[in-house]
């Protein structure tokens, strides 16, 4: 089963307290962060909706 | 000095020699190293040629041994069977070990298929040697040679397995990569979040739709092992635009649950459409993936196993 490693969002209301998440200031920064995390963690970046990315480990 | 008279007096020797020769020859013509790339290195070939020679010799000597009423000689054949099962294990072990290092793995079903073929071909070698040796010893060397040629023809015929084009109609389908969703035709493939990855997919990807030709083909196409084999073969023949640590750039095959059609997304290096179509049609149909539910449902009473 896939594991959620991290969330990245532009809107802090998307995430609950205690979850591993990064908050981006803009859509561009969001894409950038998700891209870096994908490469660093070797995980897939999935888009749930505009402004919310989920980094998923499928290994 | 070998003369006609000498030859006439040594039926058994000629039988064994011809049998071994044709058994070995059968293994040589069956040993392929093609785009599946195995055995592609010289030592891999030597192993199989040596085993082919042993298979030929074992099959050939069985006939004179049986003719001299040495019936226990038949146990040698069971020894050979044991040996060749070992070949199958060896192939399975090697291919499984190197599969982890492939960008697009073969998958367990494909590996099992290849391993079975290696074992099976050795038995074909034994059978050829046995028949040729028998004919040469009983009827004379000319009959041995003739039967040997026929056997090699039959063996070549055995090698031609079925391919994807026997179960499905292959056609191209447009690849759409928008709003984090990738689709091939009407089949949803996967969610890709990054705009940069979507751009690569839009540029590089080719989409296929495989429409099953029958109800049996529908079940066969849905086999996960066959799907992985399709992805591996296409990636081997057309190249693959992917690297380790790029989980989004993944060749993938998904079913259209309504119609049973299979959508295939690949990221090839080679974009020749004709080549891509031919590569897809030539993917071997794995024996363990083939299902015939229409035939199974016709069976009366309890299903029989074994």
Features:
heterodimer, A: 59 residues, four-stranded mixed β-sheet, 4 strands, B: 306 residues, alpha+beta, three-stranded antiparallel β-sheet, 7 strands
SSE inventory with pairings:
The complex is a heterodimer of chains A (59) and B (306).
Chain A (H helix, E strand, L loop, with lengths): L2 E7 L11 E3 L3 H15 L2 E6 L2 E6 L2
Parallel strand pairs in A: 1-2
Antiparallel strand pairs in A: 1-4, 3-4
Chain B lengths: L3 H5 L2 H20 L11 H26 L6 H26 L8 H32 L1 H19 L8 E6 L1 E4 L2 E4 L2 E5 L3 H10 L1 E7 L2 H7 L2 H15 L13 E4 L6 E5 L6 H9 L11 H4 L10
Helix pairs in contact in B: 2-3, 2-5, 2-6, 3-4, 3-5, 4-5, 5-6, 9-10
Overview of the structural elements:
The complex is a heterodimer of chains A (59) and B (306). Chain A is built from one helix and four strands, in the order E-E-H-E-E. Chain A is α+β, with helices and mostly antiparallel strands. Chain A has a four-stranded mixed β-sheet, covered by helices on one side. In chain A, strand 3 and strand 4 (52-57) form a beta hairpin. The longest helix of chain A has 15 residues, at 27-41. The model of chain A has no long low-confidence stretch (mean pLDDT 89). Chain B has 306 residues and is an alpha+beta fold. Helix content of chain B is 57%, strand content 11%. Chain B has helices at residues 4-8, 11-30, 42-67, 74-99, 108-139, 141-159, 195-204, 215-221, 224-238, 273-281, 293-296, and strands spanning 168-173, 175-178, 181-184, 187-191, 206-212, 252-255, 262-266. A four-stranded antiparallel β-sheet of chain B has the order 1-5-7-6. In chain B, helix 3 (42-67) packs antiparallel against helix 4 (74-99). In chain B, 39% of the residues are buried. Classes of the chains: A alpha+beta (59), B alpha+beta (306).
